[in-house]
Write a structure and sequence with these properties.
Order of helices and strands of chain B: EEEEEEHEEHHHHHHEEHEEH
Strand content of chain A: 25-35%
Helix content of chain A: 25-40%
Strand order of the largest sheet of chain B: 1-5-7-8
Oligomer: heterodimer
GO molecular function (chain A): endonuclease activity
Largest sheet of chain B: 4 strands, mixed
Number of strands of chain A: 5
Subunit structure (chain A): Homodimer, forms a heterotetramer with a Cas1 homodimer.
Keywords (chain A): Antiviral defense, Endonuclease, Hydrolase, Magnesium, Metal-binding, Nuclease
Strand content of chain B: 15-25%
Number of strands of chain B: 12
Structural class of chain A: alpha+beta
Family (chain A): Belongs to the CRISPR-associated endoribonuclease Cas2 protein family.
Shape of chain B: globular
Number of helices of chain B: 9
Shape of chain A: globular
Distance between the termini of chain A: 25 Å
Distance between the termini of chain B: 22 Å
Order of helices and strands of chain A: EHEEHEE
Cofactor (chain A): Mg(2+)
Helix content of chain B: 40-55%
Number of helices of chain A: 2
Structural class of chain B: alpha/beta
């Protein structure tokens, strides 16, 4: 299933910057960065439970926010892209 | 049902693959040209001069991602294998079966049943689709070949030993490839086909077929490894160091459906032209870089097509069928199934 993960992490202090990096890294392990704080992750439901918990554990809920948009099994059909930085279709042929 | 995972093909000379967290990163000339999460992949196929970091190799082995290295022309060079895993009891049963002539013959008989049935399906489809544009002689040859193959299928059941079965297979292959040229509907002189030739392929059709067979074998091999079978110990193919016997056995059922049909489509729809091939002075024929990509894209798309599995009754992407067959093979070896049910294309 495709899930859109967006986050806003307060970076007024060093701790915040650390959280930002850790969030980005965790998301990147499972999906691709489509914009600066926006990731599309394609995961199995079980993996998603683990990833979601990891993200929840990282953030400081007093200062940061996380938003998950469930796009479902055919999520790529619900997405339209305009402009630069076209993401890779991870389900299509992967030839580099 | 397991999802059909993707395969990463790297065809850029000098690309460097490395691991970053759970990602594979493709660097070309020190600039990042791709980054993919590993959990979406079931295989990585590297063509030509592609480098890979040991950390990534190790991680792929751990995740069960099959890594193969091929030459630019698709000839198999090496694969990366981690610690042997899977069920030792299953593997031992596989070796016992392979050593037992009568059990071995029973499996081989069913594999060939699948193979020849699927070859017939390719021919019959051509008869159906091109009946109007074929000359009487051509369609006569096709019908004749179809009958000949049907006759061989009947004889399979009465043949108890593996060597005679191999003989029947050779007979079937000859009949099939004798009419294969009739299935090529374009009249370009470049796409003449005079029978199979390999190492090296001596014409364009053979070059394309050989390339596709390598891809099919890679997929069959990873399917077998993922269910814990040893891809090296086959029933139809004799043991030889470095040869994935069982993967080749399994590939027999899929060659005509995944490779031959695709090759015909690519040629008949003019997605490939005679100019997409390089003919060396030695007579060896290979695909050009761009054409190779066209073939890879078509192959990946073909694998996405849904099909109903005759034995399981489930609908799945064709790309998952080698995996389903590997599972059925494992069940047969374990004794849960009386016989190995081959993949039969409708």
């Amino acid at each position: 299933m495709l899930i859109l993960v967006t986050y806003d992490v307060s970076t007024v202090d060093v701790e915040g910057e650390k959280r930002l990096r850790r969030i980005a890294k965790a998301c990147r392990n499972y999906g691709q960065r489509v914009q600066y704080s926006v990731f599309e992750v394609e995961v199995e439901p079980a993996t998603w439970v683990a990833l979601r918990q990891k993200l929840v554990d990282i953030i400081d809920s007093d200062h940061d926010s996380l938003r998950f948009y469930q796009l479902g099994a055919h999520g790529e059909r619900r997405v339209e892209h305009i402009g630069a930085k076209r993401p890779v279709n991870l389900k299509g042929p992967l030839i580099f | 049902m397991r999802p059909l995972l993707n395969t990463l093909y790297v065809t850029t000379e000098g690309a460097w693959l490395r691991k970053d967290g759970e990602n594979v990163v493709i660097d070309v000339e020190k600039a990042e040209s791709g980054r993919l999460p590993l959990h979406l992949l079931s295989g990585i196929v590297c063509f030509g001069n592609v480098l890979m970091s040991p950390a990534l190799m190790g991680h792929c082995c751990e995740l069960g991602i099959c890594v193969s290295f091929l030459t630019m022309n698709g000839r198999f060079l090496a694969r990366v294998e981690g610690a042997v895993s899977g069920n030792v009891l299953l593997r031992r049963e596989q070796y016992r079966c392979s050593d037992d002539p009568s059990r071995c013959a029973a499996v081989v008989c069913h594999i060939l049943l699948g193979k020849i049935h699927n070859q017939r399906a390719v021919i019959r489809r051509a008869i159906r689709d091109h009946a109007s544009s074929c000359s009487a002689a051509e369609s006569g040859a096709l019908v004749q070949a179809d009958r000949g193959l049907a006759h061989i299928v009947e004889r399979l059941h009465r043949t108890p030993d593996v060597d005679s079965l191999r003989g029947l297979e050779g007979d079937a292959a000859r009949r099939y490839f004798d009419v294969f040229r009739n299935l090529i509907r374009v009249s370009d002189a470049g796409f003449q086909f005079e029978g199979r030739s390999r190492r090296p392929p001596r014409d364009r059709v053979n070059a394309l077929l050989s390339f596709l067979y390598t891809l099919v074998t890679h997929d069959c091999r990873s399917a077998l490894e993922s269910v814990g079978l040893d891809p090296a110990v086959g029933f139809l193919h004799r043991d030889r160091p470095g040869r994935p016997g069982l993967a080749l056995d399994l590939a027999e059922e899929f060659r005509s459906v995944l490779a031959d049909r695709l090759a015909l489509s690519l040629i008949n729809r003019r997605q490939l032209r005679p100019t997409d091939f390089i003919v060396a002075d030695s007579g060896a024929v290979t695909l050009k870089d761009d054409a190779r990509k066209t073939v890879l894209v078509a192959y990946q798309e073909r694998k996405r097509e849904p099909l109903k599995h005759a034995f399981c009754g489930e609908t799945a992407e064709i790309g998952l069928f080698p995996w389903l067959q590997a599972q059925l093979m494992a069940r047969h070896l374990r004794g849960d199934l009386d016989a190995y049910p081959p993949f039969l294309w409708k």
